[in-house]
Amino acid sequence: MRKFSFALLLPAALAAAADSGVIFPKAYPPQNEIVVQNMVPIPMRDGVKLYADVYRPAAPGKYPVIVSRTPYSTERYPSAYDAAVFFSRRGYAFVFQDVRGRHESEGKWEPFRNDQEDGYDTIEWAAAQPWSNGKVGMQGGSYLGHVQWRAAMASPPHLVAVFPMVAATSLYHDWITLNGGWRLSFNFGWGAVRQESRIMQNTGPHTMAAGPESISYESVLWRLPLMNMQELVGRNAQFYRDWIAHPDYDDYWKKLNAEEVFEQIGVPVHTAGGWFDIFSQGTLRGYAGMSRRGKTEAARRKSRLLIGPWGHGSSQKTGQIDFGPHAHVDVHAVELRWFDYWLKGIDNGLDREPPVTLFVMGKGVWRQESEYPLARTQYRKMYFAGGGKANTRLGDGRLTFEEPPAEAPPDRYTYDPNDPVPSLGGNNCCGTPTPAGPHDQRPIELRPDVLVYTSEILQNELEVTGPVKVVLHASSDAPDTDFVAKLIDVFPDGRAINVAEGILRARYRESLSRPRPLEPGKVYELAIDLVGTSNSFQPGHRIRVDITSSHFPQFDRNPNTGEPFGVSSKVRAARQAIYHTRAHPSHIVLPVIP
User: Fold this and answer.
1) For the residues 148-173, what does the mean pLDDT come to?
2) CA 109 from chain center: how many Å?
3) What's the N-to-C CA distance of the chain in angstroms?
4) What are the distances in angstroms from CA 552 to CA 172, 370, 425, 447?
5) Can you point out the beta strands (E) in 102-206?
6) Tell me: the pLDDT tens digits for 301-340?
7) Cα-based angle 197, 198, 201 (whole degrees, multiple of 5)
8) Are 533 and 499 in contact (CB under 8 A)?
9) pTM flag (> 0.85)
10) What is the mean pLDDT of residues 345-361?
11) Residue/partner pairs of 214-217 with CB below 8 Å, 24 or more apart
12) What is the pLDDT of residue 198?
């Protein structure tokens, strides 16, 4: 933590507002001066001391408390203090703590493992302080959001409400993998490189020091086996080896999954995130799960969801698309209204508004809804069609609402792990070498290992809001392989902008806990979860689905060998076939809003 040893007097500031379809709150001006106590020791149940900076109003009194717990160096991320200053100047005590084993805090750093117990102990410590009124909330994004779910799982008596931003609910499903596909660039970049306890010299945007020479991040990601990848950059993180050693959803991951225990979480949760965020699944499932299964009526009826056209944080432009001046939201102002209601008891109308606020891309508007997924959704199938030559966007692949014919030749391609389809946009974040968000897919749609299915030009608007799924009828000559699907909005000028994506590691087609090899040549029905989106396909646009078997380096290259994950350097090509007949109707399921 950055050190201060004096009272801090800071100027007032106003938050901005956005108002496209929905009026977002403005933050009221700062009301008080603040004092900061540094290096405040907070004892955990096992005797380890975690250290925090405590920001609070200078005037004597008892205040509601907001706890934020971070693994990040605030010297590298000085903006981390913005929230502490913002809330303490508006009448809150703010406890900003280094998690176990990070920076000043004692103990061993092992991501995620101690955050349930340590979160509980920190919250109860904060509630007992003389400057506390006994009501505690939690705030923060990404890892700082996930620790809120972990603390809520422990049910500390003085925790009143939480606001996890761009956060995972399940580390296995949202963070480490997506449908069994290993999030290579993020896991390696965030885990082995940035969070391993030793500090590595940065010699360029994606360049790392490795002994006397430097090596590019991109070249490291090609290294096999994955288990030995750390050696190239001088890392030796045990937790990273443990992640690779647990590729299935087993007990190692279940204890970290809030979705397993929504029924035990009794506090209201305000999730917030972006349609293009790497943790969008956690944002959406967190709200949907709490609104249906939360322990208390308050948790079920008063949890909320905010999701915009963002990546890993609010913005106006994401990827290659500028979503307009109303897209960016002052999230601190939204958080302030939430905490004022729950921790200060202010009747600001929050409980009388619809709980879901989402941004509809294509229209460029915000809208409030009563639930997610929307109750009025009509799930409609669009079928793959063609004459067996859907390879590239110049092929004959079609997307249609008409049911497929009795006979049609399958579309075939070869997936070679030595020549994978490069990642181009999508749901990624945090310094990885591939650009995230919406990007024109045409550069990779000329590859023969990308199948492209495109609708006719739309005559009327078609809004798609909610969970998206692709159902493939596919075969492979490999014992294991991957299938990747993208939902794409094709603009009149030809731009092909991705709006949702998903991957399925075929060995996990039946269960993420019990992998099973493929029988070569057998046709399987494979469901690919594309998580969710809200996009209005406008008249003059077309709907497209791309199918391939790689998305590298956002996801690791499936070697197609069926060998245990992460321990082999062997790869082989896989010959894939996608079927679209009446008996094997490959399709996408769109959540259409009438």
Assistant:
1) 98
2) 23
3) 51
4) 19, 38, 11, 14
5) 132-141, 159-165, 177-178, 181-182, 202-204
6) 999 999 999 999 999 999 999 999 999 999 999 999 999 9
7) 135
8) yes
9) yes
10) 97
11) 217/189, 217/193, 217/433
12) 36
Choosing from 53, 174, 277, 546, the catalytic residue is: 277
Q: Work out the angle at residue 59's Cα, subtended by the Cα atoms of residues 53 and 64, and round it to the nearest 5 degrees.
A: 60
pLDDT in tens, 486-543: 999 999 999 999 999 999 999 999 999 999 999 999 999 999 999 999 999 999 999 9
Dihedral sign, Cα of residue 173, residue 177, residue 178, residue 179:
negative
Distances (CA, A) of 232 to 151, 193, 216, 500, 537: 36, 11, 10, 33, 45
Q: Which two tokens stand for residue 458?
A: 């739309």
Which three-class secondary structure state does DSSP give residue 537?
strand
Q: Determine the pLDDT at residue 194.
A: 62
Tokens 């000028």 identify what position?
493
- Catalytic one of 173, 206, 270, 312: 312
Q: How far apart are CA 414 and CA 417, in angstroms?
A: 10
Measured CA to CA, the distance from residue 275 to residue 531 in angstroms comes to 9
The CA distances from residue 174 to 185, 221, 305, in Å, are 14, 21, 17
Cα–Cα distance measured from residue 476 to residue 561, given in angstroms and rounded to the nearest whole number: 12
- Active site (annotated) includes residue 277: yes
pLDDT value of residue 205: 34
Q: Evaluate if residue 102 carries a pLDDT over 70.
A: yes
CA distance 442 to 436: 16
* Residue 312: active-site member: yes
Who's near 228: CB < 8 A, 6+ residues apart? none
Distance, in Å, from the CA atom of 241 to the CA atom of 221, rounded to the nearest integer, reads 15
Please tell me whether residue 117 adopts helix, strand or coil conformation: helix
* Residue-range domains of the chain with CATH: 34-170+256-369 (3.40.50.1820), 378-593 (2.60.120.260)
Residue 270 annotated among the catalytic residues of the structure: no
Q: Which of 142, 185, 423, 534 is catalytic?
A: 142
* Residue 232 amino acid letter: L
Provide the 10 A C-beta neighbour count for residue 468: 25
DSSP 541: -
208 pLDDT band, cuts 50/70/90, is very low
Q: Is the pLDDT of residue 197 over 70?
A: no
**Dihedral of alpha carbons 558, 564, 569, 571, sign:** negative
Other CB atoms within 10 Å distance of the CB of residue 31: 11
Mean per-residue pLDDT of the chain: 92
